[in-house]
Amino acid sequence: MRVVYRHFPLRTIHDKAMITAEASEAAGAQGKFWEMHDWLYEHQAEWVASSNITETLISAARTLGLDAERFRRDLEEGRYRAKVEAAYAEAVALGLPGTPFLLVNGRPWPQTLNYLEYAHLEAMVKLARLAERHFPAPPPMTIDPTRRYRAILKTEKGEVVIELFADRAPVTVNNFVFLARQGWYNDITFHYVISDVVAITGDPSGTGFGGPGYTIPDEITETLTFDAPGMVGMLNAGPNTGGSQFFITMAPLPQLNGRYAIFGRVVEGLEVVRALRPRDPEADPGAPPGDRLLEVVIEER
Predict the structure, then answer these.
(1) Nearest-angstrom CA–CA distance, 21 and 37
(2) 227-275 pLDDT per residue, tens
(3) What are the entry keywords (predicted)?
């Protein structure tokens, strides 16, 4: 990670915005950009009230040990004005409404989100890194729906064995098997756990917002319901938006029927799921990571 400074002089509000921005660049040409940056912020009341801003800045340059005459020439000739104006034009083109403002990989981050919280900044970085692992499209069909598949979830609390419904949810099972064999589920966490209700995993970023880079259609059937504990469903953010996150129920949850595709059920190790440490990132964004899912092993019979 690196910090990149870009000027955004609000000239219609601050009459000295341009020249102070130019002053920081003139100081930067002598290797002291951040020293001038810090001086400007620490002495803002002084230079805002100055009747001769150029002389005030030159005096500051001397204080910082700069070549004052070179600094004066740079200001008087407007040597760095084009650079400051270009930065301003870039900000306007991006639609920046003001400062402070955050860009993530060149894209404005919505101001409606409290992005100044550390937990949210951390989540942004994790999601940006997860994008490097995205797949270009859903996997081709490689499973045989007439065969039996089991998934063994190896967690730090023990093993959970899931019977996969390849015959009734072939697309979802195929997707799950593909991701498991690609190592997508290796060494991740159960990022959301409500005791005796549900446990959610499948997001390597651990943020609850990560996915494989594609979506799959829902496979919802009336013959599979959440009317018993141990059902395994594909999480989604709305119809036909499943990806990699899945959940395991620890109680009957009939309110989920018709909303999420069921693609398996726990046949061994439900007590392991019940033993997972509770975690609610919405209530406590800074909570420690959840219990780890070490590996998912697929058995085919």
Answers:
(1) 9
(2) 999 999 999 999 999 999 999 999 999 999 999 999 999 999 999 999 9
(3) Isomerase, Rotamase
Extract the runs of DSSP E, i.e. beta strands, from 179-289: 188-189, 192-194, 198-201, 231-234, 246-249, 261-268
CA–CA separation, 150 and 165 (whole Å):
9
- Whose CA is closest to 181, among 149, 148, 228, 214? 149
Give strand ranges (E) for the chain. Answer: 103-104, 107-108, 149-155, 158-164, 188-189, 192-194, 198-201, 231-234, 246-249, 261-268, 292-300
Q: What is the CA radius of gyration of the chain?
A: 28
Tokens 């009341």 map to which residue? 45
Residues 153 and 287 in one domain: yes
Is 63 found in the same domain as 193?
A: no
Q: How far is CA 219 from the centre of its chain?
A: 28
Lookup result for tokens 């009317």: 227
State the CATH number of the domain containing residue 28.
3.40.30.10
Q: Please check whether residue 189 is in contact with residue 292, taking contact to mean a CB–CB distance below 8 angstroms.
A: yes
The domain in which residue 73 lies consists of: 1-98
